[in-house]
Amino acid sequence: MSVKATQQAEHAGLPKFLSALFYAGASLLITVVNKTVLTNFRFPSYLCLGIGQMIATIVILYAAKVNQIVQFQDFDKGILLKIFPLPLLYVGNHITGLASTKNLPMFTVLRKFTILMTMIMEVYILRKTFPNRLIYSVVAIVLGALVAASSDLAFDVESYTFILLNDAFTAANNVYTKKKVGPEGLGKYGVLFYNAVIIVIPTALASAFTGDLYKAAIFKDWMKVTFIICFFMSCIMGFVLMYSIVLCSHYNSALTTTVVGAIKNVAVAYIGIFVGGDYLFSWTNFLGLTICMLGGLMYSYLTFSKTLSEDKAEQGN
């Protein structure tokens, strides 16, 4: 391969790497911000926080469309068919994700099962196959998660249930997002905008029906500037996270998007050990965390190495 072709391949892989890095950063920041709002300030309604994030997405994208900064399809009867089942997956992913940040260290451990679920869904839905090295990396990640969870002294059935549900919704959301942002789909901005538009009203009604909205309305810290700033940051970061996921899925595979989320957990898990006060140390748990993170790093390396090799092969042809 010539030097020029090699440089072209590297440039072709740059958007893939940068979009993955953007997603990792956004995911890290929103996890910390959501934990601050829901745990530190004890905000009682994760549904209302999700509604705020959806409204922020709608307002930002609509303003960008009006000012011709971005473009996406105007609403018509075919939108619902084009976007289904993403709204349902989005709601499930959003709600279970917000509800599962109570135990931050174990959240990052059990989230590793998202990789396994994504691989299974890609095999059955997208008919993909994976080399043994990647499969071994997934086994290491899951094994580490099981070791860590086996000695979790802060075991919480409700939190664990939400985390595993969040794994399933995330995996399905990543796989179907990859399909919907393609040429026959709605594109990056259309997926984001119509997802939020379709689900914001049902979510608001559910929040009102369950009493969640009332709890949020009478929350005592609405007059605190620090809480308002954190709540506003969470709403904006909700949009940024969804955009980063769609962008990463656009340039990479659903599996790569999931891997990036796992690598992000390297930082989040160890932050959770020292910040938040909800981590009870044990050597078994710490060993499991470390196995998870090493497996995730190995998995990420193999995935991006494969991507770069494929880009070079394409340029050579």
Q: How many beta-strand runs?
A: 0
SSE order: HHHHHHHHHHHHH
Instruction: Indicate the multimeric state.
Output: single chain
Q: Which bin fits the share of residues in helices?
A: over 70%
Stretches with pLDDT under 50, minimum 5 residues: 1-11
Distance between the termini: 9 Å
From the alpha-carbon coordinates, what is the Rg to the nearest angstrom? 20 Å
Rounded average pLDDT: 79
Shape: globular
Share of residues in strands: under 5%
Contiguous helical run count: 13
Query: Structural class, please?
Result: mainly alpha
Largest sheet: none
Q: What's the topology here?
A:
Blueprint: H1 3-40, H2 46-66, H3 78-83, H4 86-99, H5 104-110, H6 113-125, H7 132-150, H8 157-180, H9 187-209, H10 212-217, H11 225-251, H12 254-274, H13 283-316
Question: What does this entry look like structurally?
Answer:
- Helices cover 80% and strands 0% of the residues.
- It is mostly helical and 317 residues long.
- The chain is built from 13 helices and no strands.
- Helix 2 (46-66) crosses helix 4.
- Mean pLDDT is 79; it is low at 1-11.
- The N and C termini lie close together (9 Å).
Index terms:
single chain; 317 residues; mainly alpha; 13 helices
Short structural summary:
By secondary structure, this protein is mainly α. It contains 13 helices and no strands.
